[in-house]
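Final report, results section. Input specification for complex C-07:
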Amino acid sequence: WEDILRDQAAIEEAATVAVDAALLEGVLMRTEGQPNASDVVNYAPFTLLPSAVPSALFEEAYAVQQDFNLLVDAISQNKEFLEHTLASTIKVDDFTARLFRIHQQVLEEGLAQSVFLGINRSDYMFDCGVDGTAALKQIEINTIAASFGGLTSRTVAVHRRVLQVLGKPEKASRLLPNNPSKGLALGIAKAWELYGSPSAVVMFLVEEVQRNIFDQRCVENELWNRNIRVIRKRFRDVFEKGSLDSARRLYMDGQEVAVVYYREGYVPENYDQQNWEARLLLERSKAVKCPDIATQLAGTKKVQQELSRPGMLEKLLPSHTEAVMRIRATFAGLYSLDMGEEGDQIVAAAIADPDRFVLKPQREGGGNNLYGEELRQVLEKTRDSPERTSYILMDKIRPQPAMNYLLRAHSPLQASECISELGIFGVYVRQGKEMVMNKAAGHLLRTKAIEHADGGVAAGVAVLDTPYLV
Ligand code: ADP
Ligand code: MG
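Structure output:
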């Protein structure tokens, strides 16, 4: 967009059109000041211009998504793998330990659930290697509450309008359609149908503070359009009004629940004692949980790191040779900090050269990772203690920055050097042993200024974007 970026007047005009287009299309968020009110809303932050994405890497990310769906599903059913992999983590990380205890408890009782629904988002950056060719490298896979599938379904139209206003109609027409909210809803609808009780509802398990409600409403709308009733409840409501019958069917206020779609429950702050009890009730039930607790555990960073060990993917996906190769090609270097020689060596390497790595605790939602000097200090402090095993280390990925404008309410229009992260939504449904749906359901491109090492859209760092394939 070099010619565009030089024309300040055109940029300013396009930004005005862009903001109105975002409001018109429903790219909305509640405000920080009134996070639970819908009578004061604003646009969700987004880039003025679409960002260039190499088409080969974009296709590679789509092509590997069904493989990742299979892998996550296989891990969720592999009790021994989860137990072995998380053994060191649960000794030092109380949150993972509590999730793991619920997992064990429901297995001991025997699962009442027979239909399984996974909605995940595998995130990548484009690493420029030493020779300058970009490679697709996975950042992480989110197996619970993967968000922005709704709003991103509406950002293409905004970027199309911006390019038209800037006199690039042929480029505007090349932007790919993208509708994850429909793909996600189709998965939920399939699980609801297989549950087999036409009067049962879909329950969105939502946060106390719901700034991102419009993203969820996009998926909800698709369900209502299919005549599926949706209710929105919090853990607190489940604690007060949820119950199981003798077949462990879940009822809320007397209404049977077929599917529980979690948009909450992935960080320790979401839980007090009552909420943990509510979570256990949901997990024990026959309702289709998206995700069930095993699938949530499959998305931990410790699991991600163990997957990168030689031979591990082959063990988890036997007779899927090509899937294993496609998955492995997306892995960056990942390292265990378990006590022992292997851990000691990588800790020493990271202390000597912290800028090569990212240090990650078992947390979700952005803003938790450590970089550079901070990484060095934490490792120096914890190097001889088991505390270090609550983290994993990962090679830092280095994408090529590009100029763009990040449009945020109440912020001045200003060019920034930016990097992008591509997410692919995966949806699958399994009934007993049989996969009845396995799809890539659309994509999400998030872009942030390079000065921010960490953080997503909800954390206020990244903004919504649209890929422009090159
Ligand atoms: P979270 O669960 O908090 O989203 P992530 O693993 O996605 O954790 O990390 C948060 C952010 O940190 C990412 O969106 C990305 O911007 C940055 N990040 C994570 N891992 C790396 C890495 N290996 N190299 C470069 N940046 C990274
Ligand atoms: Mg992330």
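Residues 2-332+397-469 form one domain. DSSP finds 18 helices and 20 strands in the chain. This concludes the modelling results for the funded period.
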